[in-house]
């Protein structure tokens, strides 16, 4: 990878009109929302900067997140479904009949190779993908899982908390683009800031799609594993890094 992570510069944020951000490891600190994060989201809402969460978390969890947090909406399951703050929803991925049963069969296949794998606690609340915990898996294990799923016609990605077996075309960027076309057709790519921290966010870092992207500082842990790197990186990790980024956006907007 020739692209290097760069420090965040205020000049790049002057045109930002919407923030599309990952949740776990980006908006959370030790898997929790912080008081500072909630205050920052409220500041963005008051400044009329919509925040759209784009997460790998399940449909069941994300429906609640979109309702309770001061955000415009949320995309669940790495681009599979969308919920707005009023509870309206839309399926973003093409899901055939028997989809969950086929996912379960694929999980059985990978579990035969890796017997220690266990479903994630939120897998019961999913519609488009199948998840298991990433803890205890090495980079070599994750690479083997990627190949195994691809050979069976499935996509595979992982975050700081979960591994996802999913449809090949289901990506965060694809889901985000659908929502943007439907609800924000007036925005240009350079007016959208995408934010993330791990491999399942890398489609949000593809410069040809989203020229203004940022990683919170913990993205450095995965730099060698990403096909696309964010254009900028925040000084701090996790939720503190997102809050730094949001403050920079607000300052650039007021200037």
From TrEMBL:
Pfam family example for this protein? Hydrolase_3
Q: Which InterPro entries match?
A: HAD-like_sf, HAD_sf
Task: Reply yes or no: does the keyword Cytoplasm apply.
Answer: no
Gene Ontology terms, cellular component aspect? cytosol
Q: Which SUPFAM superfamilies match?
A: HAD-like
Which keywords, in A-to-Z order, does the entry hold?
Hydrolase
Please state the span of the N-terminal signal peptide per the UniProt entry.
none
Q: Name one GO molecular function term.
A: phosphatase activity
* Designated name of the protein: Cof-type HAD-IIB family hydrolase
Species per Swiss-Prot/TrEMBL record: Pegethrix bostrychoides GSE-TBD4-15B
| Organism phylogeny | Bacteria, Bacillati, Cyanobacteriota, Cyanophyceae, Oculatellales
């Amino acid at each position: 990878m020739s692209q290097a992570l760069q420090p965040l510069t205020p000049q790049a944020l002057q045109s930002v009109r919407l923030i599309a951000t990952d949740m776990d490891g980006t908006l959370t600190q030790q898997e929790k929302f912080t008081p500072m994060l909630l205050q920052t989201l409220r500041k963005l809402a008051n400044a009329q900067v919509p925040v759209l969460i784009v997460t790998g978390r399940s449909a069941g969890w994300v429906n609640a997140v979109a309702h309770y947090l001061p955000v415009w909406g949320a995309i669940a399951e790495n681009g599979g479904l969308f919920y707005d703050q009023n509870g309206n929803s839309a399926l973003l991925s093409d899901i055939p009949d028997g989809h969950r049963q086929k996912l379960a069969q694929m999980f059985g296949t990978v579990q035969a190779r890796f017997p220690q794998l266990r479903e994630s606690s939120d897998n019961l609340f999913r519609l488009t993908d199948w998840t298991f915990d990433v803890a205890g898996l090495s980079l070599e294990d994750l690479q083997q899982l990627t190949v195994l799923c691809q050979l069976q016609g499935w996509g595979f990605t992982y975050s700081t908390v979960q591994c996802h077996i999913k449809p090949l075309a289901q990506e965060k960027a694809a889901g985000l683009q659908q929502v943007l076309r439907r609800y924000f057709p007036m925005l240009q790519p350079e007016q959208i800031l995408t934010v993330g921290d791990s491999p399942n966010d890398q489609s949000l870092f593809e410069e040809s799609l989203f020229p203004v992207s940022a990683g919170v500082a913990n993205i450095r842990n995965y730099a060698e594993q990403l096909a696309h790197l964010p254009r900028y990186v925040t000084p701090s990790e996790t939720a503190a890094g997102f809050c730094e980024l949001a403050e920079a956006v607000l300052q650039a907007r007021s200037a």
